[in-house]
Design goal:
The chain contains seven helices and 13 strands. The radius of gyration is 21 Å and the shape is globular. It folds into two domains: 169 residues, Spore Coat Polysaccharide Biosynthesis Protein SpsA, Chain A (Alpha-Beta Complex), CATH 3.90.550.10; 81 residues, no CATH class. 33% of the residues are buried. This is Glycosyltransferase family 2 protein. It holds the Pfam family Glycos_transf_2. InterPro entries: Glyco_trans_2-like (IPR001173), Nucleotide-diphossugar_trans (IPR029044). Belongs to the glycosyltransferase 2 family. WaaE/KdtX subfamily.
Length: 269
C-alpha cells in the first residue's frame, strides 16, 4: 500500500546510485525527480523505472543552486507529506517500517532523520555511530528551503518537529579520497561565498578552533571512533572542510585589502 507522501530528489549524472534511491521510496504515492542535465544514463534509468510502474515524475530544470533547486522540486509535490532524499541516500529497513506511524502523529508537522555514512574500507557505520539529525519529512505547506543556500541547504519547518528513532537514511557515497577532497574544496568555496554574501565577516580564530572541534564532535560524540581508521579519515575530511571554509573567508577579505599585485619595491630580499 502506498503512503500519502511525495518523495523529491534532485540529481545530475547519478546513474551509479539513482535506481536504489528511487526503489527505496517506492512506498510513496509520488516520487518527484528534478534533473539538471544528466548525460550519463540517469534519465534512461528513470524511464525504465517509470515503465516498471514506479510512481515517478521526472522534470528537467537548469541548475539554480542547492537551496533553490530543492525548493523547485518541493513545489512540484502534491501529496500531504513531503520527503527530501538525496540520490545517494536510501531509506533503511528500520526507517521504512516506521514511516506509516510517522504520518499519523497529529502532534507534529515534521520529522528529523539521521543518516548512516558508508565508509570506504569499512561499510555503513553502525547505528551507534550516526550523523546528527536533519529535517527531512514534513507536511506539505509547512516546510521550505532557503533559496539563497548555495550548499548544505536545510529545511525550515513550521511547528513541532520530532526525531525518528530507530532508523535512518543509508548514505552510499563510496567516493575515493582524491575525488572527495575535490568535492570538499568545491563545497567550502560555496559555503565561504554564501557566508560572505550574508554579511558575515571572517573570524580568523575559527581556523584554529573549528577543525579540531569538528573532528572531536564527529569522532567522539557521533561515535566514528568505532569505525577504526576509516572513521578517523572521515572525521579528518570534515575537519579539513571546516578549515578550508574559514581560510577562504579570511583570504577573500585579505586579498581585497591587499590585491595580489607584484610589488616593485623588494629591497632587503
Amino acid at each position: 500500500m502506498s503512503l500519502p507522501v511525495s518523495a523529491f530528489i534532485i540529481c545530475q549524472d547519478e546513474a551509479h546510485v539513482i535506481e536504489n534511491c528511487v526503489r527505496s521510496v517506492s512506498f510513496c504515492t509520488e516520487i518527484v525527480v528534478v534533473d539538471s542535465g544528466s548525460t550519463d544514463g540517469t534519465l534512461e534509468i528513470l524511464e525504465r523505472l517509470q515503465a516498471e510502474g514506479l510512481p515517478l515524475r521526472v522534470l528537467r530544470e537548469p541548475w539554480r543552486g542547492f537551496g533553490a533547486q530543492k525548493q523547485f522540486a518541493l513545489e512540484q509535490c502534491t501529496q500531504p507529506w513531503c520527503f527530501s532524499i538525496d540520490s545517494d541516500e536510501r531509506v533503511s529497513p528500520a526507517l521504512g517500517e516506521r514511516f506509516p506511524q510517522l504520518l499519523v502523529d497529529e502532534g507534529v508537522n515534521g520529522w528529523k532523520i539521521t543518516r548512516y555514512d558508508y565508509l570506504n574500507g569499512y561499510g555503513y557505520v553502525p547505528p551507534s555511530a550516526h550523523e546528527r539529525y536533519h529535517n527531512r519529512l514534513f507536511r506539505r505547506g509547512k516546510g521550505r528551503f532557503n533559496t539563497t543556500d548555495l550548499v548544505h541547504e536545510g529545511i525550515e519547518i513550521d511547528g513541532a518537529v520530532k526525531k525518528v528513532a530507530p532508523g535512518g537514511l543509508l548514505h552510499f557515497s563510496p567516493i575515493v579520497l582524491h575525488d572527495q577532497m575535490l568535492k570538499e574544496n568545491k563545497y567550502s568555496t560555496l559555503k565561504a561565498k554564501m557566508k560572505t554574501g550574508r554579511g558575515k565577516p571572517p573570524r580568523p580564530w575559527k581556523m584554529l578552533v573549528s577543525p579540531p572541534v569538528f573532528f572531536l564532535r564527529w569522532y567522539l560524540a557521533h561515535g566514528l571512533w568505532r569505525c577504526g581508521w576509516p572513521g578517523f579519515i572521515h572525521c579528518a575530511k570534515g575537519a579539513i572542510y571546516s578549515f578550508l571554509t574559514e581560510a577562504k573567508r579570511y583570504e577573500n577579505v585579505a586579498m581585497e585589502r591587499i590585491p595580489p599585485v607584484e610589488p616593485t619595491d623588494v629591497r632587503g630580499y
